[in-house]
Amino acid sequence: MVLYYLLTFIYVMVCTLLLLVILLQQGKGDIAAAFGGGSSQSAFGARAGATVLSKATAVLAALFMISALALAIIGQRGPGSVISGSAPPRPVSAPKTPAPIGSTPAPGSPAPTKPAPTTPAPATPAPK
């Protein structure tokens, strides 16, 4: 879990630095650059700044992609928990007792069958 938070912090820092490095770079399509006015506005000089900033952009972009991929892989496993590794407890079942005749069955249970009405056997044989 600590690794996830550390990697998230690094990811945010890389994103911020990448944004700043990209914004520091000089645009190539400026009309002033065509007449030689672009070199005076660069902080690192005419050519040296472009190579340092472009290398920094490439390194930060690679770190951005690697850390995003690592966060996605760690996030696939889901949040860690102390309880997540144990099996859920088994429900306690009550002993089964027959339902009294004439009661309504519980929802989802099969309908109870009523016993056939019994007639008492005659004590004497029936006349022919």
How does this model look, in words?
The chain is mainly α and about 130 residues long. The protein is built from three helices and no strands. The protein is rod-shaped and about 135 Å long. The model has no long low-confidence stretch (mean pLDDT about 75).
In brief, what are we looking at here?
The chain has helices at 2-24, 31-34, 48-76.
What tags apply to this protein structure?
128 residues, mainly alpha, 44% helix, rod-shaped
Record the SSE blueprint:
Elements: H1 2-24, H2 31-34, H3 48-76
Helix pairs in contact: 1-3
Mean pLDDT: 75
Runs with pLDDT <50, length 5+? Answer: none
Helix and strand pattern: HHH
Share of helical residues: 40-55%
**Inertia-based shape:** rod-shaped
> What fraction of the residues are assigned to beta strands by DSSP?
under 5%
